[in-house]
Structures are given as structure tokens and as C-alpha cells.
Amino acid sequence: MPPLLIGRDSIIEDFEEGIDDGPGAPGRLMRVTGARGVGKTVMLTEFGRIARAHRWEVIDETASNGLAQRLLERLSPTKPAVSLSLKPSVSVAGLGGVSLGEASISSQQMPLTLREALGSRLDGLERKHAGLLITIDEAQAADRNDMIAIATAVQHLIREERDMAFVFAGLPTIASKWLNDDVLTFLRRAQAEQLGDVPLEDVHDALQDTFDDSGITLAGQALDMAVKATEGYPFMIQLVGYHVWRIAYRRQRDVEGIRTVSEDDARQGIDNALTRLGDAVHGPEMDGLSPIDKTYLLAMAQDDGPSSTSAVAKRMGKSLNYANIYRTRLIDAQVIRDMGYGKVDFAIPYLRRYLREHAAYIRMRR
Ligand SMILES: Nc1ncnc2c1ncn2[C@@H]1O[C@H](COP(=O)(O)OP(=O)(O)OP(=O)(O)O)[C@@H](O)[C@H]1O
Ligand SMILES: [Mg+2]
């Protein structure tokens, strides 16, 4: 968790109101979307903290293979989950069965089984006037059967006005992946919270205060450099804050009295932060893209500012229609953004610089 959650007051309020207002409140069914590093996981952690402070139970899961089964096991850890279902069937590879030790729960049974497990857990909690929060992170990566099982179960319980909240978070691609799925219309009704960049004034105040609290002054030109370097991107706020602090601290470890961040400290700290940003954000983002997506980005990176889509197509040696397929994909994934008038620009801070520095490597691996 960052030392200070910057610029997220309104979404936190929405969630907290949802808990306070009781079953049926919109904040109890929420989807949180945003680009990599924008703070989705941190938000789920904060929701968990708030829910626990209300004496709620919290189950947090990350979508990956076996999600529904893991959820089931966490809901009924003592009984073998299979006893809850009517007819355990033997798992047959390829038929969508979820293996559970010897027996399995088929994808047809899973929604009902989950619903029963959730229901009985809620019985216990509601007797103590407590509720249940379930959060699913990286929802864009969930298996469709898992998502159907969970959505179906939660939908019934919410309709029955049980004391629960359900929040799922993921990359903006969940919109095209799950919300267009007819079976999952329920998820479309979730309150949408799109996380974006944090205003620089908020970054300014937060950095200043956090440094002050640690006994090192960050002010003047050094503060301005640090604030500007973050571009309001939450992950970069964290990195810049940490690395600038570390450089300044090391240089003045033995100083008595007031310590301050010099412009040199700021410069070095920002450099270190940028290196870490490349490893932690740009690299993994590139790994998730197709070779042609990457070609599109490399073609864009030749410009110093927004790129003309026709110039990009020409550099790729492709027609505008062909290039536009990748333009749309990259916009959906929030890697680039539409600037209007046939222009696009990078949506992830410092991605242009990263692509230029790593262009040869990215091409080679293709
Ligand atoms: N509101 C915020 N204020 C300050 N720092 C934040 C905020 N939100 C996130 N951060 C910092 O940004 C970093 C990335 O946050 P987080 O891991 O939640 O992003 P994410 O959206 O889940 O990314 P990914 O899609 O890669 O999982 C964290 O290290 C956190 O410290
Ligand atoms: Mg995350």
C-alpha cells in the first residue's frame, strides 16, 4: 500500500456509502477498471480494509484457473465442497468439469453450489450483523465458466438482498470481454469506476507532506521536478517518491538536523524510478501484446508527440484500414489514446522513451 492514497476520495466514498446504505445500494456492486499501474489492486485492498473495519468478512481472489473452485473452498474450508452439490460427477478432461480431489463440480453445477456456499456463509455472518465482501482482481483474465458461475451466484444473492458486496477489477478490456457477453449482463449493471491519473496538485501536496513526515524536506525546484516526473501516474508517484527519498536519505544519513532533497537527488531518484518503471510496467505490457501491436507502437515512437494514423500505417507498410484494427485494439487496452483529427498518442507515461530505448530488442524478439 502507498503511504497515502492520492486522489481517490470519491470512489472510496461510493464504496463506503454502499456498505452503510445496506443491500441494494449501488456501491455494493462495482467494477473498477484502468490501465496497468493505475491503482486497481490498491483500491481493492482499501475496500477490504474498509469492509473489515465494518466487521465484514473479506474474500479476495485473483482471476486465474480454478477461480470458482478456490472461492468455493474458501467459503467452506471445513467441508469438502462437493458435499454441497447434489450429484458430484467425475471430472472428464475437456468437458469443463472442475476437479475437486476425487470428485468434481461441473460447470453446470458450479453456480448453484457457489450460491449455496455463499448463502450459508452469509447466514452465519448476518446473525452477527456482518456482511461479506468478495473482490476479484485481474477479472479480464478469468475463465468464462468461472465468471458465469460467480456472476450467477452473486446475482441471486444480491436480488435476495443479502448483506454482501461484490467488486471486480481489471484492465479496460473487461468491457469488451465480459460486458458484451449475453450470459453476463448482470455484470453490466455494476457501478463503473474508471481509475485515471491523479491531478498534479494532489501529487504535489502528497509528496511534500509524506517527505515532511519522514524528516526530509522536499521543496522548490526539486519538488517541482519530482511532481512533473510522475505525470500523475500512480505507479510512478510511488516510484519517484521512493527513489528520490532513498537517494536523499543515503546522502545525508549522518547529517544532524534538517535534511533536504537537492536537485541532484531528485534527478538521480527520477532516473532510478524510470528504470524500475520500464521493468515493472512497460516490459510486462509489451509481453501481453501481439507482434503487430508492437510494430504499431514502434512506428508511433518515431514521433516526438501525437502520431498521425496515416503516417503510422505508411511506416508499417500497411493500408490505413489494416493499421486501424491495431489502433482500435491498442486504444481498448488503454495503451494509446485517440487525440482526434486522425491522431493518436501514448496513454502510458514514458512508453515512447521505453520503446525507443528498447526498439532493437523488441524487434529482435519478434
Ligand atoms: N491512489 C494512489 N496514491 C498513491 N499511490 C498509488 C495510488 N494508487 C496506486 N498507487 C501506487 O501505484 C502502484 C500500482 O498500483 P496497483 O498495483 O494497485 O495498480 P494496478 O492498477 O493493480 O496495476 P496492474 O494492472 O498492473 O495490476 C502501487 O505500488 C501503489 O503504491
Ligand atoms: Mg493489480
From TrEMBL:
Ranges of residues in domain Orc1-like AAA ATPase: 5-157
Coiled-coil region: none
Record-annotated membrane-spanning stretches: none
InterPro entries according to UniProt: AAA_16, P-loop_NTPase
UniProt superkingdom: Bacteria
Xref: Pfam families: AAA_16
Cited PANTHER family: ATPASE DOMAIN-CONTAINING PROTEIN, DNA-BINDING PROTEIN-RELATED
Protein name: Orc1-like AAA ATPase domain-containing protein
